[in-house]
Amino acid sequence: MAIVSVGIAILILILLVTWAKLNPFLAFLVTSVIAAIMLDVPIEAIPSIIEKGMGGLLGALTVIICLGAMFGKLISESGAAQQISRSLMSLFGDKYITWALMFTGFIVGIPLFYNVGFVLLIPLVFSVAYQTKLPAVYLGIPLLAALSVTHGFLPPHPSPTALVPQFGADLGLTLVYGLIVALPTMALAGPIFAKTLKNIDSQPIDTFKPADLKDEELPSVFNSFATSLLPVILIAGTTALPYVVADSNSAFIQFIGNPMVVMMIALAVATVTLGLSRKMQITKIMDDYSDAIKDIAVILLVIAGAGALKQVFVTSGVSSEIGDALQSIDLNPLILAWLIATIIRICLGSATVAGLTAAGIVAPLVLTTDVNPNLMVLAIGAGSLMCSHVNDSGFWMFKGYFNLSLKDTFKSWTLMETMVGVIGIISVLILDQFV
């Protein structure tokens, strides 16, 4: 009966978001209260359980996500993202322009949250389309496939970052495995798949024709790449140290490798290298940081709401019951987690909400099976990207920016996102054989 109550709670969440058009944070809160009542949680304990769940999941995550948003904002405002894209297109040349756009989306997408990266980089696609006379969809899909991959698989993006502590995974290993999964996934769903889309006619509206910064206003190539990739370098470096240096478990190394400290260091370096050293006023930099916090406030609230619902499941004991029930299903836990995330993604639209909700359901599997927790994060990430359609804001952003019909949006955007999810889980399963 308890598992039926969980199913009803998930259905209520779906209806509140899709039919009632409720804000996801409010939908999570309402669903948490209803779920707690159905699961016979003492009514006087419900508020404290919700508070515990919200605080427990956010915790240090708030610092990481906020610092990441500030970092990404500076990458954008300083012109570093523009310099990276110019350099990669110059390196790859016209023949491999789609690969240049893919790597642009990947590198710039690591520090930028998805919607910010989308709005920032789509004008670049149109600029290339105007210059080369190549179809805009053919050029855009590789870049957006890379953005989706970073959003679903790589910290410090909200969903993978939030799932790491829930599963007891290691942020550094998750990042390393995520990079391994990301490369073949974005290559197949990006430049290779894009070759089938050359016949889709797209006429981007003139509003999106970009006004680029002048060359002398951009940071240097080295500065742009080194600063943008600094969080990845620090996390991957401190993760690799125990394998190459005997005495690498010192307190200092552990301190430097902490995700919060990594983002603090990266932001401090970026503030100097991309900001102050290039004559940006400190007041302007701080204003940009404030704007960045506003941009991700909704994401933090969604994560908090997901934490509340998860805590209701844990406190009521249904979480353990779900774990026992899922164990009885003769299916690889990674595939099962991917399927659950896929179903919720199709119903709700939001990749972040799908990932966090699925995590709350399958978390007991990590404790009761020998599944690799780092790969579980990636499996759910892959499922959360599946089958984007009319209930996903990204679907409508792509359709509107590229001025496409619904049919062509399904043929390009929806199929690309589905390929990312399918290739992603296949890559995770292959990786599972070796780690």
TrEMBL record:
Annotated signal peptide: none
Coiled-coil residue spans: none
Record key words, sorted: Cell membrane, Membrane, Transmembrane, Transmembrane helix, Transport
Top-level taxon of the source organism: Bacteria
Entry's transmembrane regions: 30-50, 57-76, 96-129, 136-154, 174-194, 221-245, 251-276, 296-314, 334-363, 375-398, 410-431
Principal subcellular localisation of the protein: membrane
Localization per Swiss-Prot or TrEMBL: Cell membrane
UniProt xrefs under InterPro entries: Glcn_transporter
Bilayer topology term: Multi-pass membrane protein
Family, as annotated: Belongs to the GntP permease family.
Protein name: GntP family permease
Organism of provenance: Paraglaciecola algarum
